[in-house]
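Entry
Fold in token form

___
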Amino acid sequence: MSFPTAVSRAVTSLAILKVNWDIRRKDYIDNFVPFALDIIGTYEAGTQVVIPEVQTAMQNQCGIRVPQAALNLILSRIAKEGLLRKEYGLYIRQPGSYESKQLKNIESSKLLVSSIISELISYCKDTFQITWTTSEAEEALLNFLEVHDTDILISSSEGSIFPAIGKSPKNSRFLVSSYVHESMQKGGPSAEALETVVKGHMLACAIVFPNPNSIMRKFERTNFYLDTKFLLRLIGLQDIGMQPACQELVDMIYQKQGNLRVFSHTVNEIHEILEAIANRSALTDTDEGYGEVWDYLISHGYTPSTALLINAKLSKTLSDKNIQSDSVPGGYDKFGVDEVKLQKLLDEELSLLRPEGRRKDLESITAIYRLREGKYYHEFEKCPAFFVTTSKGVILAASKFFNTNMSDKIPLCLTDAFLTNLLWLKGPDQAKDLPRQRLMCSCITWLNPNESLWYKYIADIKKLRQDSTITDDDYYLLRYSLHAREELMEHTLGDDAEFKSSSIPDILNAVKEHIREEERTKAQVLVSEAENKAAVLSSSLEIVSAELQKKQRHDIVRLLKKASISRGIARGISISLRILLALPMVCGIVTSILGLVSIIRINTALIVIIAVASIIGDGLYAYDWLKGTIVSNIARRVEVKTHRVILRFLKHIFG
């Protein structure tokens, strides 16, 4: 296995670790066995395999420095497979050839890392007009992957497992974060490749734990006390992009049988922040607010009543997330520490933090020490308490004061990033999206101004406002608009040394242009929506009109059918009436003829002639009578009325 540089070897090895895990999935020691096998395979039979030599060879070939204690476990695993023999604590190479099983994985991982580096170089050149060499891009990527506070925690007396980067390219964290953020949003092969490397980085951290084989164990009634900033992120009052990762961490702690806790003074600090904001008449003034929460609430359009409501529901919000509030323990006489010295270290590491905030951190750290009763532990799972913080400065100060490192003492304080890594290692398949969330959180951190840059910027825009160089509205935009932060980072690339007051007008103009563009976009969306609604309405009207016409035609046909039926019935009744009225007349005529025959008693021929003439005459008279005003009028009136009655009846019955 050969790579151009130590950094290139390290990044590629991270990808290989992820592939090894996907294939073998035994434990975290087994994940490193293939690397050691490739080195031991070069030894001749009967040769003694010395752990420091293997450590150096692995570092040279793979770019990862595995602690000697972990290497001893790896070699023991290989001895069980037969390639080594252990005698009196020494490892001897056994006879037999060895062929690397990683060649395919090595080549595919090289291609994967190469594609990431090529895309990163192109992105920086196209987006920021910054040209990086391959080595610079590799160093920048590894620098981004290494969370400094995590390195502090996992570093042992032997140093970090990753190669020293030295001075990484200028503004590398911002540039890589920008590339990663865009790639992850787009998805596709680039996002998958980055996730592979990130998972490999998280897997690599397992090897520096005091006992890597114990990582899968659950906690034994361990209490995790969360700091103020983490809780503000968790409840959605700060760095909203961080909320999903914070919620995921809280859920994982709970699932791994850890206890979620918060000190009462931390809860009181959040109450004080929210009360200070709620007591304002409005959040639209341009006076100095209460820190990051104030800025966040204004930039997202909240009101003082929102802060009041959140404050009132804070206890229930924490309870719903299974977080319990505890008072700080006693025991100062038995487990007290030099608080003056610790406070000095915190002041040095957290110089930009408010004094009352640093005091709260001191109370939390010393409370954890008392909860542990002054004892030091060698396994995370057996520690009774940890302080979980987002601050690297707190970790540095506590580590210096208590002289803790991963090689012999489990620290009192953990960063949320480190704890996330640890919990993910306890169940990678139970939190498959966590590496992606961690990646996005890193991006959010480095795509926003750091405290030093932000304070410089705020001081300058305040001065410009006091000098009436900018208006109150301009100051509001520059301080509270999310676009202002983005433009500030674009101008400085996250480097506070690059910030100049002369860039503020350019930032302001860019922010205003963003707002105008948003308004234009909103207007276009509204016009488009109106046009779509009009088109839908027009189409609906056409459909309704067609349905109405169809219904009208149907109703007319039905009406005609009903009218035809009723008219036929009425006509039949009319004819029947006429016949009934004519029947008495016919009977009278016949009777008259018969009477005449009996009286006159003349011959048959004469009788016939007289009868026919009489019938014809009476028939003509009867016809005239029936067609005249008497019978005809009566029949017609009956027919019309009958038709109307029957038509109404049919409409009522059949609709």
The chain has a mean pLDDT of 80.
